[in-house]
């Protein structure tokens, strides 16, 4: 039986992984782990797919190699690898050692040379007399340099095509398919073509196609020059031109030297024995678990049990990935059983639960029960007890995802009241940047154990998770935020989703037709301005028209792949130079409105009620802001004509009005309060227009002299500076010179010195503590602030300045929603007022037509006084039959 030996080109794979993944990947201690994660991901994929018997790894050393000594300019153009990459190499070697993989390094040689040597040593093992039998060598690498070592199917190369997941195995057939050459001819090919990445010169003027054709024809570099010197060039197919012959003759020495530089050495003095690469014997399971846990590589721990070697029992899983077990679950088969279990809940006053259409699973202390949900709700007595348990103030409920629980219970007329603990929301407050807040994921992250697949046991895991999370919430001073904002607002969101908002389907259909006509008109307009028809949605075709055909000039950035960008921000720069840019932007705006909102809308409207029930995501942003989906109502255009037409489709129910309550300049007011900037606070207290006041201070003019452009530029500064806008950003937005832009920003920070001080304080706090907080305690962790990469530091500094302001605004809006919700659930108001939507700083209600003024007065008062600030909060109130056509309420 053939055994498999995998030789890892550690150097190539580390570089490939580092550049393939974002530098934001870090360990719990803030150490970069993108290369570690990528490298280990490929290692696990290789083990799973190839099931190797032996593994060895090779790495470059920092010292020069024999190639550098022979050619001083070898790899001279290579940029020095960043410190973040170098720092991860020792960690990767630790991981390899834990996996039982020996690491080979040798001064004066590259990793490829060591691979060539190890391959040759294994090739020369006496197969007949060897206890291991025949061996296939698989080279695992991040580049194609080792393809020259391929030997039929006995030596193949396992490498990456794209990213770190798309892999390919090169045998001799695949090499021939890619290059038209045999593996052993690749060095002859590089002798002619050279290798720019390693600064191997080759023959000047000979490119890939010519080099490939020459080696295909002559077989090798030696044969090519032998034929040239025999002067048989006219008999060759294809014939060689005099010009090409001259190039080859003038650069003969360089061609052979380049071939030598490209050739992997196969006889390095290495002490290698095959049993050293027997990774299964040398595996340290406990160390793998400890390293993965320390580095925060929890998703990789989960992948361990996907590997057949683990599941077949050849390897015992480390403790960190064992499945969590729990006590047995008592099945409640009849009314007597359920009544007895419910009595325990009432007696203890606390239970954890998981609820669905089939089962009601719950735990009291460590005693777990499972009841059939239909049996519970269909029995009058049991239903009443269930109602008492969930609605009773004296019983503490522990669950996961209370928003969905509230929606589920309300369908049966049961409310969720009293003290509650939601493990999903606790996880969100403790780690706001996760993509997955499922119970499985957060339990694994907390305990490094998988939960049982038996769903009836979920409540015991929920209870255990709650205990750990409670400690962390208290330690990180997040209890108040959790108990007074996040948990209560989940109930508000659930009722909003269930209520939905009424949609005028006819208006949507009419708008769809209008937009289709408008898109066609704009398409013709763009084609006319371009002088040619093309696909406007194709960045490649658009770029060709703008910059090659129309020759539009401007400072336009390029994409990561080197193409000229046609992003909206870049087209805006061109709008003044050529009208086509403005037309394209308009086309894109209308096209997005159609595809994102208009087209999907009919499928999203509940056919029975005619209402739209958007999903409000409480854990979708790091700032605490709510997100919405199906559809995303946060991004509906407000100021455009078509955006307003779209809002007209959101209508009030018969006998009701839509009433909008919108906080005025909320984030700027919070910025004034947090920064304690005296001028800003004074302006808000006097009721001045803050942008006009800013223009007065920055441009040194009287209020009456502030024109529209000055106010616009002041507005850009007010919002932009707080969100990290620099000189270039303001220059682009205002159109002034860079020097003037710098002068205005310097003046702004001088006049509003409290803002300047706040910005500096937040950056210092982030560096000291690793996080910043909102007024209400919501934290934003910023490990990037300690990076050695300037770009990462700048990004973290912007977040440090922005989060306390934007996050505090998010917290305040949620608090307002809770307080208003409590008011409209008063028996005297209930059924007269419904909270429908929350978009940015605006709350949209449906209010009984006869009560609009009275209800509006009260809600405005609640929202403006929900929290005490050093500046007044102002709420603008409007009402109407639809969301677009609204008017102020007299006296409110």
TrEMBL record:
Gene3D superfamilies in UniProt: 3.30.70.370, 5' to 3' exonuclease, C-terminal subdomain, 5'-nuclease, Ribonuclease H-like superfamily/Ribonuclease H, Taq DNA Polymerase, Chain T, domain 4
CDD domains xrefs: DNA_pol_A_pol_I_C (cd08637), DNA_polA_I_Bacillus_like_exo (cd06140), H3TH_53EXO (cd09898), PIN_53EXO (cd09859)
Xref: SMART domains: 53EXOc (SM00475), HhH2 (SM00279), POLAc (SM00482)
Pfam families named among the record's database cross-references: 5_3_exonuc (PF01367), 5_3_exonuc_N (PF02739), DNA_pol_A (PF00476)
InterPro entries: 5-3_exonucl_a-hlix_arch_N, 5-3_exonuclease, 5-3_exonuclease_C_sf, DNA-dir_DNA_pol_A_palm_dom, DNA/RNA_pol_sf, DNA_polI_H3TH, DNA_polymerase_1, DNA_polymerase_A
Catalytic activity reported: DNA(n) + a 2'-deoxyribonucleoside 5'-triphosphate = DNA(n+1) + diphosphate
Record keywords: DNA damage, DNA repair, DNA replication, DNA-binding, DNA-directed DNA polymerase, Exonuclease, Hydrolase, Nuclease, Nucleotidyltransferase, Transferase
GO molecular function: 5'-3' exonuclease activity; DNA binding; DNA-directed DNA polymerase activity
Tree of life domain: Bacteria
Domain 5'-3' exonuclease: 3-280
Enzyme class, spelled out: transferase
Coiled-coil region list: none
EC number annotated for this UniProt entry: 2.7.7.7
One BP annotation, GO: double-strand break repair
Residue intervals of the DNA-directed DNA polymerase family A palm domain: 643-851
Entry-linked NCBIfam families: pola, PRK05755.1
Family affiliation: Belongs to the DNA polymerase type-A family.
Function, as annotated: In addition to polymerase activity, this DNA polymerase exhibits 5'-3' exonuclease activity.
Protein name per its UniProtKB record: DNA polymerase I
Gene name tied to this protein: polA
């Amino acid at each position: 039986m053939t055994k498999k030996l995998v030789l890892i080109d550690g150097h190539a794979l580390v570089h490939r992984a580092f550049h393939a993944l974002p530098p934001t990947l870090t360990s719990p201690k803030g150490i970069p782990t993108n290369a570690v994660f990528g490298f280990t991901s490929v290692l696990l994929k290789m083990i799973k797919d190839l099931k190797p018997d032996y593994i060895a790894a090779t790495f470059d050393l920092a010292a020069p190699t024999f190639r550098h000594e022979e050619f001083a300019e070898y790899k001279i153009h290579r940029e020095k690898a960043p410190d973040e990459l170098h720092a991860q190499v020792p960690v990767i070697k630790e991981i390899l050692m834990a996996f039982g993989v020996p690491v080979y390094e040798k001064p004066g040689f590259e990793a490829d040379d060591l691979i060539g040597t190890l391959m040759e040593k294994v090739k020369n093992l006496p197969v007949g007399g060897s206890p291991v039998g025949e061996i296939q060598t698989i080279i695992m690498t991040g580049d194609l340099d080792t393809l020259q070592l391929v030997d039929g199917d006995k030596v193949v190369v396992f490498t990456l095509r794209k990213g770190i997941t798309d892999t390919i195995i090169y045998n001799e057939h695949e090499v021939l398919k890619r290059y038209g050459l045999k593996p052993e001819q690749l060095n002859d090919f590089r002798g002619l073509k050279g290798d720019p990445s390693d600064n191997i010169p080759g023959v000047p003027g000979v490119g890939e196609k010519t080099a490939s054709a020459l080696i295909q024809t002559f077989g090798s570099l030696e044969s090519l020059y032998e034929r040239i010197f025999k002067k048989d060039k006219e008999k060759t197919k294809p014939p060689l031109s005099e010009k090409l012959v001259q190039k080859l003759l003038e650069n003969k020495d360089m061609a052979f030297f380049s071939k030598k530089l490209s050739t992997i050495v196969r006889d390095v003095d290495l002490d290698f024995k095959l049993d050293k690469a027997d990774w299964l014997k040398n595996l340290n399971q406990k160390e793998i678990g400890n390293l993965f846990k320390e580095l925060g590589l929890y998703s990789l721990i989960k992948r361990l049990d996907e590997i057949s070697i683990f599941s077949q029992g050849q390897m015992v899983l480390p403790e960190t990935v064992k499945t969590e077990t729990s006590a047995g679950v008592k099945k409640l088969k009849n009314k007597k059983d359920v009544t007895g279990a419910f009595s325990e809940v009432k007696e203890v006053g606390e239970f954890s639960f998981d609820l669905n259409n089939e089962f009601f699973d719950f735990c009291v202390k460590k005693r777990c029960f499972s009841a059939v949900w239909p049996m519970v709700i269909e029995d009058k007595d049991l239903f009443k007890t269930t109602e008492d348990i969930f609605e009773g103030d004296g019983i503490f409920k522990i669950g996961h995802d209370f928003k969905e629980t509230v929606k589920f219970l309300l369908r049966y007329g049961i409310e969720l009241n009293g003290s509650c603990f939601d493990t999903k929301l606790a996880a969100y407050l403790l780690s706001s940047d996760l993509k997955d807040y499922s119970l499985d994921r957060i339990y694994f992250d907390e305990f490094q154990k998988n939960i049982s697949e038996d769903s009836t046991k979920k409540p015991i895991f929920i209870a255990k998770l709650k205990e750990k999370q409670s400690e962390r919430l208290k330690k990180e001073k997040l209890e108040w935020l959790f108990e007074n904002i996040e948990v209560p607002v989940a109930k508000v969101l659930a009722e909003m989703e269930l209520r939905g908002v009424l949609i005028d389907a006819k208006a949507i259909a009419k708008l769809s037709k209008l937009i289709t006509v408008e898109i066609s008109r704009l398409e013709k307009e763009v084609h006319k301005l371009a002088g040619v028809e093309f696909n406007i949605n194709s960045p490649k075709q658009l770029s060709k028209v703008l910059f090659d055909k129309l020759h539009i000039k401007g400072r336009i950035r390029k994409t990561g792949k080197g193409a000229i960008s046609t992003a909206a921000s870049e087209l805006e720069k061109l709008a003044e130079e050529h009208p086509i840019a403005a037309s394209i932007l308009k086309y894109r705006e209308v096209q997005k409105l159609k595809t994102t909102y208009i087209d999907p809308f009919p499928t999203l409207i509940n056919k029975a009620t005619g209402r739209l029930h958007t999903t409000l995501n409480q854990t979708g942003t790091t700032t605490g802001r709510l997100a919405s989906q199906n559809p995303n109502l946060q991004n509906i255009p407000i100021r455009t004509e078509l955006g307003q037409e779209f809002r007209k489709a959101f209508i009030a129910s018969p006998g009701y009005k839509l009433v909008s309550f919108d906080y005025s300049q909320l984030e700027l007011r919070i910025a004034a309060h947090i920064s304690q900037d005296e001028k800003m606070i004074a302006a808000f207290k006097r009721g001045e227009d803050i942008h006009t006041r800013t223009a007065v201070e920055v441009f040194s003019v009287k209020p009456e002299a502030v024109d529209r452009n000055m106010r616009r530029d002041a507005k850009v500064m007010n919002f932009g500076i707080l969100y990290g806008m620099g000189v270039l950003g303001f220059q682009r937005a205002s159109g002034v010179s860079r020097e003037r832009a710098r002068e205005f920003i310097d003046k702004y920070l001088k006049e509003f010195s409290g803002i300047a001080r706040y910005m500096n304080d937040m950056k210092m706090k982030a560096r000291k503590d690793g996080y910043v907080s909102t007024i209400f305690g919501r934290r934003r962790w910023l490990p990037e602030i300690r990076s050695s990469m300037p770009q990462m530091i700048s990004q973290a500094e912007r977040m440090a300045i922005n989060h306390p302001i934007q996050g505090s605004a998010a917290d305040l809006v949620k608090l307002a929603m809770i307080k208003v919700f409590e008011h409209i659930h008063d028996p005297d108001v209930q059924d007269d007022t419904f909270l429908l939507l929350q978009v940015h700083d605006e709350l949209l209600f449906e209010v009984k037509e006869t009560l609009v003024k009275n209800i509006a007065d009260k809600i405005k008062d609640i929202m403006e006084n929900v929290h005490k600030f050093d500046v007044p909060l102002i709420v603008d109130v409007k009402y109407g039959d639809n969301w677009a056509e609204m008017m102020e309420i007299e006296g409110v």
